[in-house]
Write a structure and sequence with these properties.
By secondary structure, the chain is α/β, with parallel strands linked by helices. The chain has one domain. It is built from 4 helices and 5 strands, in the order E-E-H-E-H-E-H-E-H. Strands 1-2-3-4-5 form a 5-stranded mixed sheet, with helices on both faces. Strand 1 and strand 2 form a beta hairpin.
Length: about 140
């Protein structure tokens, strides 16, 4: 799940990774975003529609990393926005959203298009900026 962080606070996640993909780089990129201390959104337009089998080591590592960063994830990540044109597939993601939110600590939002996702992201970021104490995001 490589992250493209150059357009922060819009962070793009890609799920089309090869076998030699480094999860260390993914966690490092996410930590870089968290260390900025500003709210951000994660967006993807290629989320997997089928369950992906993770090794026990990958699962354990992800859980440990998430637990170590749970407070930051809850306060900094405003949402994961999945762009999915198919209404049927969005419905499947919607049922998955509750478990996702409980695990990661931030909501899963769905959009039928990139434009819809950008509207959601802009609204979330503007709402957070408006509610932030003066001089802080």
């Amino acid at each position: 799940m490589p992250l493209e962080i150059t357009d922060f606070p819009l962070v793009w996640m890609r799920y089309d990774t090869g076998q030699d993909h480094s999860h260390d780089e993914d966690f490092a990129a996410l930590e870089t975003c968290l260390k900025r201390g500003a709210p951000f959104v994660i967006l993807t337009d290629n989320a997997p529609t089928e369950p992906h089998a993770h090794s026990q080591d990958e699962k354990k590592r992800t859980v440990l990393w998430m637990k170590a960063h749970k407070a930051e994830l809850r306060s900094r990540v405003l949402a994961m926005i999945v762009i999915e044109p198919s209404a049927a597939t969005r419905l499947l993601f919607k049922s998955f959203g509750v478990a996702f939110s409980k695990f990661w600590g931030y909501p899963l939002r769905l959009a039928p298009s990139r434009e819809g996702a950008m509207e959601i992201a802009t609204t979330l970021l503007a709402e957070r900026a408006a509610s932030a104490p003066s001089g802080h995001a």
